[in-house]
């Protein structure tokens, strides 16, 4: 390959004018910069359009038959937060699952009925009828029972109900013999002179529950967040403090901290195996604990799985495999780990000159939070920007069934005349305007710009850190030859000259990510298909694009380092970085990646410590926290949030070290090719960094002649640098 591509694979020649990151540079990838700015302006326009059309109340409050929101503050229905069904048994119709609407009148009420009652009996008792009116429409004065029922102003009966996800459902129960009851009664009067079994209500409740099942889980999760957000925030702050403390200690005690980190990771995983084993043994005598996960099926309440022995056995096996893999890697890579620890020490020395780099992840996190918040809010407003659509619902055959209607004049319309038992009810949110027709396109644009902006923010952080650490490396006399504020200087250069290059690299990555999202969507839609060829092809595509995404991230990362140093455009920098790494492939494999592994163990340690603390706190396993921990539907919600958040926080802080190591390594490879360590062509690397990477002589002897081990820097040069 060296002979086929001599222009790309030849080492860099000595350049006496090169003194590190180029300061006199020009703008790169201007076309992509202009395109990015235009797309951002379009993104802002989409947000403004969505905010003007959307209404988030549609996903918060239940909606009655008129499309009004139950319990909405500042409206006449503010004191009526619950939705009441006139005849829940009509929800047993199969059309409920297709139309997502129960063909019965629905109205907002202050509280659910708590007693059996029929309109016929309540009408004869003044007190009962006063209570009954709470579940009726207005305009009952002077009407008989027959007129009230024919006009659909009141339900024919009331059954004891309980609120569930802001809706009133019959209070169903079950006796010891398996008999279904409602309000402790197995029979009830349906208000039409018929005595019916309580089991007749089951189908209606079941279908209505299926319709709102997703919202039910989402609302419970939302309620858990409202109850535990304060403790989640405390957990994330603890994770941030531990990460910051670890990074600061790593700066001064790199060697000791790495070994402490390795030992603690092994101990934490070992403790996890011990705890899971104790739980597995304790469930041996518990009834029903031997049920398999396959027989149990999917449960929205994840705590159910913790009462199954097979769950803890799976945890034991997974943790044991992770423990064995880590120990084997530590044994077989012990020599490389010693070199990697020395490389981390050198990175700590570099960070000591650029201490502000430790806090730069907070800036990146703030920008990413803005991007995520803008995307989420825009997505909610776009999804709720439809208009209420009303359709004809009926019990008997009707030519106008499921046709769009207007509730204001439906009682006098021809539809009502031809179908006397029909009702004009709220069906769903939709629309026929141009805006509504292209709503799915706007949602796609929102997702794509989210990926692009998030990748741009990440790329900006990588280039900024790379420029700061490159200025450290290429300073012959440190810190005299370094900028006064390396981070701010690098950030300014990146935004002023290389916004286009950042946009170009992040655009390529975003296109691949959006293709992966589309493949996942297609896979979800084709889950029911039995075509094995299609499944195999889709699986291959998903695997290929996953690998491609990882490769592009690797190329982008090193391309940004080259852009930060030389100020060239993205494609040229990506090409130079790629071939430079190819000329030093063995060093990349055995040193850079081992360092990444050690930093990953650090993230794992922080996540493990915070995750264990969160588990014992939110699950109430520790008596000291029983009265302090909030009461939750799913205690795994805050635990999972804290674990994921802790990993992101730890990744943000450790990414500074990872970027520092990558930058120093790439600069080291450049330094080897440009210079030879003589007084005429001195190395910019420190003597300790040269000693670190020259310990790998046995491996380097197997490389190409162009990668041969460099001469030791002479004593005069070392004294000059010092």
From TrEMBL:
GO molecular function: antiporter activity
Entry's localization field: Cell membrane; Mitochondrion outer membrane
Regions that span the bilayer: 28-51, 229-250, 256-274, 312-333, 353-382, 447-475, 495-519, 597-620, 632-650
Record keywords, A-Z: Antiport, Cell membrane, Glycoprotein, Membrane, Mitochondrion, Mitochondrion outer membrane, Phosphoprotein, Transmembrane, Transmembrane helix, Transport
Name this protein carries in UniProt: Choline transporter-like protein
Species, as recorded: Oncorhynchus tshawytscha (Chinook salmon)
Example of a GO cellular component annotation carried by this entry: plasma membrane
Biased composition annotated in UniProt, kind: Basic and acidic residues: 712-722
Top-level taxonomy: Eukaryota, Metazoa, Chordata, Craniata, Vertebrata
Main location per the UniProt record: membrane
Stretch list, region Disordered: 698-722
Catalytic function, reaction form: choline(out) + n H(+)(in) = choline(in) + n H(+)(out); ethanolamine(out) + n H(+)(in) = ethanolamine(in) + n H(+)(out)
Membrane topology: Multi-pass membrane protein
Function: Choline transporter.
Record has Repressor as a keyword: no
Signal peptide location: none
Domain of life assignment: Eukaryota
Membership in a protein family: Belongs to the CTL (choline transporter-like) family.
């Amino acid at each position: 390959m060296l002979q086929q591509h001599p222009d790309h694979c030849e080492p860099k020649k000595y350049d006496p004018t090169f003194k590190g990151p180029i300061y006199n540079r020009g703008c790169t990838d201007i076309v992509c910069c202009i395109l990015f700015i235009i797309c951002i302006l379009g993104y802002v326009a989409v947000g403004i359009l969505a905010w003007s059309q959307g209404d988030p109340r549609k996903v918060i409050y239940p909606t009655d038959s008129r499309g009004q929101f139950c319990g909405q503050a500042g409206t006449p229905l503010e004191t009526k937060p619950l939705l009441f069904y006139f005849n829940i048994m009509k929800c047993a119709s199969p059309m409920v699952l297709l139309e997502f609407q129960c063909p019965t009148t629905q109205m907002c009420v202050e509280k659910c009925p708590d007693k059996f009652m029929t309109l016929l009996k309540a009408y004869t008792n003044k007190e009962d009828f006063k209570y009954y009116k709470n579940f009726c429409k207005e305009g009952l004065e002077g009407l008989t029972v027959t007129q009230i029922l024919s006009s659909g102003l009141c339900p024919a009966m009331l059954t004891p109900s309980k609120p569930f996800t802001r809706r009133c459902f019959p209070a169903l129960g079950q006796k010891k013999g398996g008999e279904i009851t409602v309000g402790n009664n197995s029979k009830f009067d349906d208000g039409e002179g018929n005595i019916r079994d309580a089991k007749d209500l089951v189908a209606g409740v079941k279908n209505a529950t299926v319709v709102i099942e997703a919202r039910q889980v989402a609302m419970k999760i939302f309620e858990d967040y409202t109850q535990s957000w304060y403790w989640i925030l405390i957990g994330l702050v603890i994770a941030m403090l531990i990460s910051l403390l670890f990074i600061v200690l790593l700066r001064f005690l790199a060697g000791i901290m790495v070994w402490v980190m390795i030992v603690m990771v092994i101990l934490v995983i070992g403790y996890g195996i011990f705890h899971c084993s104790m739980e597995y043994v304790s469930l041996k005598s518990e009834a029903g604990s031997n049920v398999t996960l396959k027989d149990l099926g999917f449960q929205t309440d994840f705590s159910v799985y913790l009462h199954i022995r097979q769950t803890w056995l799976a945890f034991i096996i997974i943790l044991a495999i992770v423990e064995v893999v880590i120990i084997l890697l530590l044994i077989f890579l012990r020599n490389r780990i010693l070199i990697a620890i020395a490389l981390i020490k050198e990175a700590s020395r570099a960070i000591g000159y650029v201490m502000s780099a430790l806090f730069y992840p907070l800036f990146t996190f703030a920008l990413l939070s803005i991007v995520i918040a803008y995307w989420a809010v825009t997505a909610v407003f776009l999804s709720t920007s439809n208009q209420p659509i009303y359709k004809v619902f009926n019990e008997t055959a009707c030519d106008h069934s499921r046709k769009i209607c207007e509730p204001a004049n439906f009682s006098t319309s021809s539809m009502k005349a031809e179908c006397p038992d029909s009702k004009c009810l709220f069906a769903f949110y939709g629309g026929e305007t141009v805006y509504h027709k292209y709503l799915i396109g706007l949602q796609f644009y929102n997702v794509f710009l989210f990926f692009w902006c998030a990748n741009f923010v990440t790329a900006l952080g990588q280039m900024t850190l790379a420029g700061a650490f490159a200025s450290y490396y290429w300073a012959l006399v440190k810190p005299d030859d370094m900028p006064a504020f390396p981070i701010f200087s690098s950030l300014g250069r990146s935004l002023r000259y290389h916004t286009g290059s950042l946009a170009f690299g992040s655009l390529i990555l975003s296109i691949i990510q959006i293709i992966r999202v589309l493949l996942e969507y297609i896979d979800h839609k084709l889950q029911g298909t039995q075509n094995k060829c299609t499944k195999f092809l889709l699986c291959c595509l998903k695997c290929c694009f996953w690998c491609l995404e990882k490769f592009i991230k690797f190329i982008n990362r090193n391309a940004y380092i080259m852009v930060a140093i030389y100020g060239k455009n993205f494609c040229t920098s990506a090409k130079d970085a790629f071939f430079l790494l190819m000329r030093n492939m063995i060093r990349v494999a055995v040193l850079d990646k081992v360092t990444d592994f050690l930093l990953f163990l650090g993230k794992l340690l922080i996540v493990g410590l915070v995750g264990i603390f969160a588990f014992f706190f939110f699950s109430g396993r520790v008596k000291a926290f029983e009265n302090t921990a909030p009461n939750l539907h799913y205690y795994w919600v805050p635990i999972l949030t804290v674990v994921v958040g802790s990993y992101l926080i730890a990744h943000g802080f450790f990414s500074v070290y990872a970027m520092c190591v990558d930058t120093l390594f790439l600069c080291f490879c450049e330094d080897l090719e440009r210079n030879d360590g003589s007084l005429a062509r001195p190395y910019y690397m420190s003597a300790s960094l040269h000693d670190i990477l020259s310990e790998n002589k046995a491996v380097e002897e197997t490389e190409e002649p162009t990668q041969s081990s460099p001469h030791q820097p002479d004593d005069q040069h070392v004294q000059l640098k010092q």
